[in-house]
Model the fold of this input.
Amino acid sequence: MRQTCNSDGGVGSTENVQVRGITLLPIFVDTPIAAPNPETKLLADFKKDTYLSKVYLAGREYLNEEGQTSVSPLIGKIMQQIGTDPTLCPEYPSYFGLPEFTRRATELVLGRDCHAIVENRVLGVQTVGSTGAVRLGAELLKHWYNVSGVWCGPVYLSSPCDDSLAGIFEAAGIQDVRRYRYWDTEQRGVCVQKMMEDLEMAPEQSVIVLSASAHCPTGSDLSQKHWRLLTQLMVRCMFFPFFLLPAQGLCHGDFEQDAWPVRLCASLGMELLCAQSFSHSFGLYGERVGHLLCVLKQSSTLLAVQSQAEKQVRALWSRPSVGGARVVATVLCNPAHHVEWQEGVKSMVERGILVRERLREKLRLLGCPGSWDHLIQQGGLYCCTGLNVQQVEFLEKRRHIYLHPNGCLNLK
Amino acid sequence: MSLFGEVPQATPVAVFKLSNDFKEDPNPMKVNLGVGAYRTDEGQPWVLPVVKKVEKIIVADNSLNHEYLPILGLPEFRSSASKIALGEDSPAIQENRVGAVQCLGGTGALKMGAEFLRRWYNGNDNMKTPVYVSAPTWENHNSVFANAGFEDVRPYKYWDAEKRGLDLAGFLGDLETAPKHSIFVLHACAHNPTGTDPTHVEWMQVAEVMKRRKLFVFFDSAYQGFASGCLDKDAWAVRYFVTQGFEMFCAQSFSKNFGLYNERVGNLTIVARDADNVRRVLSQMEKIVRVNWSNPPSQGARLVAITLNTAELFAEWKDNVKTMADRVLLMRASLQAKLQVLGTPGTWDHITQQIGMFSFTGLNPKQVEYMIKERSIYLMASGRINMCGLTTKNIDYVAESIHETVVNVQ
Done:
């Protein structure tokens, strides 16, 4: 609800409060308490639970066998080196972050010999995690997408999707946020047909947010065949793809495969945005290492878009923090480190596949009704079980196992 | 056809063009007085010794993990950072009515404050509340508030170019005529770019008007400790306003006083009238943070928290800060003395009266151009210089250049 202020008095109680003889002016008295984050409440309930064998499956991080986040020995070693390097300069980085980081992050997604890179129509910006990347992308779209027309959406998100996404676009001033059907509860997979139907109805120049791989929160992705159909649709309807790539390499254990849909669009000459995170693949959650990739159609627009991106960054956080990006750049710039890191990622994936197979096998042995093949068809950190709200509640209350209300869980 | 095809080039930020031009200048005597960071007498950036020490502690600590920080940031950082601004014995802290949000540097703290105010201050989603920034001010103030949705960002009188000092009458006049509930961005100390701060008595007058006219106090504190060399002295204005009963925001940056420019360590301190208000405000801040950067970066905050919460390290840090401040004060005194000896026309007392990193020399645009073109001394068109760009090796050259410029160019 909007309220305007009149110049003489604001809205709200003007009642003053006296503390120690000093009059305190009331300013925040009308600020309502925000509804608690469902994830926060779930975690709080879990912490209060005194059951010894309780299990929390709603987290957002990769955990090792001991249930801890960890960094590989390689990353640990590099962090030590960086921490004791006397030559490193404490100066402000550029607004775009560390150039060696953005260059490698760009190459990781698109492939080094991608035409767009060679033709100099790619912009890379280091961001504060993938949230920062999505926010920056949203601000760029809001301010500069189709200057001559008045673009104000819509933006399409998958149903379900990460619960902070809609809020990010709204915060950037894009109110028209819609959903396309994605997860089919009955089929326990992606309902491609319904997805395409919904997108056929979308107006031209809609922005479509797509998960390149390891969809959050379902873990279910499109096949390459379906990606080809989807991109044909997007070209025909002049849609703008905004990819989410939160865990490249952690879905199939193959970096190219995990970025395949982005490379497909780039090879078709499309413009696109891609929000990347290095949290999962490096175990560097707290360091907030993210990247926004922007592929343009023409190199002539690059400088202008770059200057506007800089303007947006300055008003958001000014510059990113360099610590984590430096670690990632060090790994990606060194061939031996790069290989060692990729091997580490692959073994995380193998462990994930093992867990999925074991879970499916146990359910089969228990004679659990229904099909559980979808567990091994999905990839990445997340898994959508297909359990409904009542079943999830049962698990929480009777068995002390905590899942997201939508039936999705963190495999680790 | 590119959908970004009509995006216009944004105007470049002046200070960076200056840095570029400086880099390309072949003159060996060139001096960059447009830098925005501290430099040693050798003209080098300085990693504070205490920072090096704490970095080693962090690297050696195997118990530290790399998990996401809470949305509002590292708790021990937030509380110790607020204590730095408000003082350990602050009545507001004792009365449990202080909250904080860890942010991406000072900019991030301003951004979070601005986003909150736009949503929840003076009505809901009221974008018409005027936001006043000093004339002149750090140019990013305008962008941060405008981008948060405020439609009416205006200047308040501050710098008197003729007097080369504070335009108190103008400042108080704008406070008197501002619509009630307007937001005022105040520089806690070491005003950027003028280096001119109100005296204690002048701050008291400002506070009196702001209280009477119900104006919102939003402090920007980027140089605490760096200005006078003493943390408490530099926080006088912020603490005075707290004693006057204001509910207010204070955006803190640890970039300069910790030399942690690239780790983006900032804190938004919130003073409210009671714990319940703090709780509600923080709950809304969480929502805002979640759609901006989700949770803040851990490294810098950890470093600052360890330093502030460990007695010997805290003492060492205060000492390091004093080292930086003292060097700046020395350069101010030297420059003023040299100009006096040279008999440079005009008065130059403002150089030692101003405080902090920056000084408004009073040189006009023509004189600035002359300095750049003829003497390869780079400063902002406004006449602003960064004292940190001065060293014992270049100060004679700079003083002589100012002298020559003032004499030959009007």
